[in-house]
Design goal:
This protein is 14% helix and 63% strand. It is mainly beta and 155 residues long. A hairpin with a 6-residue loop joins strand 2 and strand 3. The chain starts with a helix and ends with a strand. InterPro entries: DUF992.
Amino acid sequence: MKKIIAAAVAALVIAASGTAAQAQSRVEVGRLSCDVAGGIGFIIGSSKDMTCRFIRKGHRTEVYQGRIDKIGFDIGVTGRTQIEWLVFSGSTNRVGPRSLAGTYAGASAEATLGVGLGANWLVGGSQRGFALQPWSIQGQTGLNYSVALAGLTLY
């Protein structure tokens, strides 16, 4: 189990370090808070439904439905998961209503033994103009290990 946790931490560091410079050239425009349904990782992937809230200071909160899909090593069972991302844009004036709708792609890593943590790095949305913070905050329960490519669809 220690090797699994060490591998997950290494994957998190690699995923975040490759995107830190990109995130620094963008402007933080809000926070995306998502509730992800529990589910089962089927060794080579998983798919889970989610409900997200995009929270911006001075704006009405927007609610999105979505799905997160993973392809890679993903095995185990998780309960309901909470993920928090900071949302970055290349420009603040490109953030209109429903701007986050679209498809995102990136990487994901997580480890859970009772209570677990994870990181998800994703880029996409309308005109691929948004980046979801490399270090998302993710809390979940279950028994799970995952290092995978991730796709997120918000609608």
